[in-house]
Amino acid sequence: MAENTSKNAVVTGASSGIGAATVRQLRNDGWNVIAVARRTDRLEALAQETGAIACAADVTKDDDVARLREFATDTFGPAGGTDTLINIAGGARGVDSVANAHEDDWEWMYQVNVLGTLRVIKAFLPELRSHGNATILNLTSTAGHTAYEGGSGYNAAKFGQHALNDALRLEEAEHNIRVIEVAPGMVHTEEFTLNRLAGNQEAADNVYKGVAKPLTGEDVAGVVGYAVGLAHHVNLDTIVMRPVAQAAAHKVIRR
Ligand code: 8X3
Fold first, then answer.
1. Which of 19, 31, 131, 203 has a CA that sits 20 to 30 A from residue 95's CA?
2. pLDDT for res 92
3. Which residues are known catalytic residues?
4. Which segments of the chain are extended strands (E)?
């Protein structure tokens, strides 16, 4: 089987954090990248900096995803132009217990983490199948593998995305599509916890307080770049990565 030589990737969630770091990593590794996010100003700045091609789109909107798919076809060519799809878009809202859960937060998390990922995958699958050596990488979380107090809504969404990932791998192996899950634990990015805690910077800072070295967006991007850069027959199914100081969701060393 021929190796993946075209190196044409679509990366969602590219406006900040792990997504932006992934775009930088892939560009450094010689990939052509379409960077996807809602916020055009951030996307344009990233495109200027890295040479990635910006496409503003919201993965929770059917029309946006259809437009993204057409944009990728125009950019990378039809039927197999895109060979690698990297779904980073996602996020968390709230740390409420089940007893106090807000259904609108749960719905938002299900939309952005599960249905957003599903929508983009469905749109690109025909093209990825045509390619013959394609890769789909989905960013989940350790929250998709172990539940924790205050995590239920995010846990439910990430467990759902993890299940999607596993079913997809079974279904698409016959089309020679490699399906990779990267599941990070504590990653200190500019926005993830701030968004989760409704913009409360002090509360967000406390999450990382005293933790020697939380993962960075660049740490995760390095692993993503490694996984998609391997010979195509090597499928790193599920990569769980945490900082040493976070031995488990419930065991964080703070000094
Ligand atoms: C983020 C990891 O520990 O906040 O995906 O759930 S955690």
1. 19
2. 97
3. 154
4. 8-12, 32-37, 53-56, 84-87, 135-139, 178-184, 238-241, 246-248, 251-252
The parts of the chain modelled with pLDDT lower than 70 are 1-5
Q: Is the pTM of this model over 0.90?
A: yes
The C-alpha atoms of residue 169 and residue 186 are separated, in whole angstroms, by 26
- Please tell me if the CB atom of residue 141 comes closer than 6 angstroms to any atom of ligand 1: yes
The CB of 186 under 6 Å from ligand 1? The reply is yes
CA nearest ligand 1 atom 6, residue? 143
Atom of ligand 1 minimally distant from the CA of 192: 1
Closest residue to atom 2 of ligand 1, CA basis: 185
Rounded to an integer, what distance in angstroms lies between the CA atom of residue 118 and that of residue 80?
19
Task: Enumerate domains of the chain plus CATH numbers.
Answer: 8-252 (3.40.50.720)
CB-CB contact of 11 with 141 (8 Å)? no
